[in-house]
Write a structure and sequence with these properties.
By secondary structure, this protein is α/β, with parallel strands linked by helices. The chain contains 7 helices and 10 strands. It has helices at residues 7-16, 18-22, 25-33, 46-61, 90-104, 150-164, 198-215; strands at residues 2-4, 35-40, 68-73, 83-84, 87-89, 109-114, 117-119, 129-132, 137-141, 174-176. The strands form 3 sheets. A 5-stranded mixed beta sheet has the order 3-2-6-9-8, sandwiched between helices. Helix 1 (7-16) packs across helix 7 (198-215) and helix 4 (46-61) packs across helix 6 (150-164). The longest helix is centred in the last third of the chain and has 18 residues, at 198-215.
C-alpha cells in the first residue's frame, strides 16, 4: 500500500503519472484519436453486448472527452491469436495488435471479448480481465457456459476501463489522509459498486488533467 499525507499530494502524484504512459506512442496515439474498438469473439447475447458498450461509454464520460466506441462482432472461429490448450498468451496478443496498428497506421484502443482463458503474468480465470494500460489493450474472458448477471457487465467492465484510462491502482492499494467515510468503490478488487469513491475519482481526473496539460 502507498500512503499519501494529503489529498493534494495524492492528486499531484496522479497528475504526474501521465508522463510515464505518454512515453508509449500507442497510449498517446489512442488518446488523441479518442476511439475504442471492441472485438467480440464470444457468443454473448445482444443485450449483454449492449450492456458492455454502455458501461464503457459511461466510464469514458468521467474524462469529458468525445470518445467513439465501436462494437465489431466477429465469428468465434475467426480469432487469429495463438491458442495453446485453449489458452491465449497475452504478450502474443500484444504483439499482433502492435503489428496491426503499424500496418494500418492507426492505434485505437482495443478491447477483446473472448471465450478463452488468457495468460499474462498469471493465468486468468473466466470472468477476469487483463489490461495493458500503456498499450491501450484490454482482454475480457467469458465462460461460454455461464450466463453472467447484468451487474457484471455494469461494474466489472467499468472497473477495467478505468484501468485502461490510466487509473492503474486498486482502491485498496492507496491510503490518503483527508478522505473520510469513503463509499464502496468500483476500483476495489471485486468491483462491489458501479461508482468511484471520491479518492479514486479525484485520482483519475488528476491523471487526465496531466494528459491534457502535456497535450496543450
Amino acid at each position: 500500500m502507498i500512503k499519501f499525507n494529503s489529498i493534494s499530494e495524492w492528486k499531484d502524484y496522479c497528475f504526474s503519472t501521465h508522463k510515464a504512459y505518454l512515453k508509449n506512442k500507442y497510449f498517446s496515439c489512442w488518446l488523441k484519436e479518442k476511439r475504442i474498438d471492441i472485438f467480440n469473439y464470444t457468443k454473448l447475447e445482444r443485450d449483454s453486448l449492449q450492456d458492455i458498450k454502455k458501461s464503457i461509454e459511461n466510464a469514458l464520460r468521467l474524462c469529458k472527452g468525445s470518445f467513439k466506441v465501436t462494437m465489431h462482432n466477429c465469428k468465434p472461429n475467426d480469432i487469429d491469436f495463438p491458442i495453446k490448450n485453449n489458452i491465449m498468451i497475452g504478450k502474443d496478443i500484444l504483439k499482433m495488435v502492435k503489428k496491426s496498428r503499424k500496418e494500418g497506421k492507426s492505434c485505437r484502443a482495443s478491447i477483446f471479448l473472448v471465450n478463452n482463458r488468457v495468460a499474462g503474468k498469471n493465468r486468468l480465470e473466466f470472468g477476469d480481465a487483463l489490461t495493458y494500460v500503456s498499450d491501450g489493450i484490454t482482454i475480457f474472458t467469458f465462460n461460454p457456459s455461464i450466463k453472467y448477471p447484468k451487474r457484471f457487465f455494469r461494474d466489472e467492465v467499468k472497473h477495467e476501463v478505468y484501468h485502461l484510462l490510466g487509473l492503474n491502482a486498486h482502491h485498496e492499494d492507496t491510503e490518503v489522509e483527508g478522505y473520510k467515510n469513503l463509499a464502496s468503490c468500483n476500483m476495489e478488487h471485486d468491483a462491489p459498486s458501479e461508482k468511484l469513491c471520491s479518492k479514486c475519482k479525484d485520482g483519475l481526473i488528476s491523471f487526465w488533467e496531466g494528459v491534457k496539460y502535456a497535450s496543450s
